[in-house]
Amino acid sequence: MNKLSPAAQQNLLSLMTLLGFFALWELACVAFSISSLILPKPSQIATVLITKMPLLWPHTAQTLYTTLVGFGCGVTVGIVLGMLIGSSKLAYNVAYPLLVGFSSIPKVAVVPIFVVWFGAGTVPAILTSAVISIFPVVVNVATGLASTEPELEDVLKVLGASKRDVLWNVGLPRAMPYLFASLKIAITLAFVGTVLSETVAANRGIGNVMMIASGNFDVPLVFAGLFILAGLGISLYAVSSLVERRMTGWSQRKTEMAMV
Amino acid sequence: MSTPLIELTSVRLQYANGTVALESTDLSIAQGDFVALVGPSGCGKSTILKLVAGLLRPSAGAVVVGGREVGAAGQRDAFASGIRLGLAFQNPTMLPWLSIRENVMIPLKIVEPFRKDYARKKKGEFADRADALLAQVGLKGFADKRPWQLSGGMLQRASLCRALIHEPQLLLLDEPFGALDQFTREELWDIMQDLWIKTRPTVLLVTHDLRESAYLATRICVMSSRPGRIIEDCPVPFERPRNVAMSYASEFSELVQQLRMRIAHARSEGVTA
Fold this sequence. Notes:
The complex is a heterodimer of chains A (260) and B (273). Chain A has 11 helices and no strands. Chain A has helices at residues 6-31, 42-51, 53-86, 89-103, 111-118, 122-146, 150-157, 163-200, 206-215, 219-247, 255-259. In chain A, helix 2 (42-51) crosses helix 10 (219-247), helix 3 runs parallel beside helix 6 (122-146) and helix 5 crosses helix 6.
């Protein structure tokens, strides 16, 4: 056991914490004989997950699809807006208050508006998750561009580089770490948006399943939905951190990168 | 010589915080000349360089490079004189997301006529060229490293390569050998001198090192304390190619000593003023 590398030890420890958490949950349910209407045992939830998977699967796919499309739209718009705002000091100062104002609106409040405009279903869910994931991206890309060291830009300017050259060769690469940091936030928020909209106005998706299940007092199914959402969220977060490490290793120097 | 390549006429430069860096400064540099700017620290040497590079605009007076006024009112592009410019700053300013080779190749990516061939030649001819230059300054085998993996002196050498790769007609060097040890520095002086003899670019070198200025330049301009003016313009008569042994000869030392006295005097004037 002592021969494990520090990283492996860490992984083992977090795995044990996870298992310990579920064990404790299971024990507590048994010890205090908590009704499955209040808090189902993890084993019960697992059983529901496995037996009802054929039923849950299409909804999982729907939620994943909605989230990814919404996330994609949000990020694209976010990058473009962030570039516009970040590439000029004036635009940055002028647009910032507006941006902060928009981003502080509770996004639940937008869902009814989208439903009025587009009807219940997939479109409001996509839009909600897009809208919710735009702001961190805009703010981070704009900040990344605005905080580019003038010395780095000078390197290109003295060569007679155009504004576009400077943006493309210095500004955007410089903003990359900011962008990826925001993607990790945006992907989790996109889920929030999708599920939010699904619980309010949809006939498909995990959010909708959970709403119906809770109406039927099928609490184990509600928790199963929760577990699916957590699983999806973790996997997408992991994918974005992996991409981040691949793309912006230069900003996280030290550690393994320096050894190459 | 015909019309000078660089001409500063009664240039004044005041920074936004009110500091006057330059006051009625005149300087004229002929094509193919190697001019060193020396003077007490904070006297505006680097400011002159930035003006010529088009990174700053004069508050008054005119900066003309290659027959065009740099940073003139209404001219948005800082540098549009059509002269190929190479610049090495005091700090190496490497772009951290690029390898050393890619950093050195930046000018080829931006400046015509290389730009149009960049996509085609960046893996072949251009990369070879960058590697050859890097080898020349003793950075063989470091081309694929990232900037943070190199020491300060190594980065400075790489930044010199970046200033040279596109065969600039005008080289602006701001203490490019500052962070180097004595031996490397002398080695690079020789590389610089060879290059100058071979391709004869116009060079404007800002330096604190008086031996360096006497070793490399054909003309040394001494500046006063802030606000800087050029108070002495002294030709360097030594034959080329110069070598390290010559730099310890008596007339060489005399020149350096003379410059030293002049700057010490300028400093004390600046302090009392």
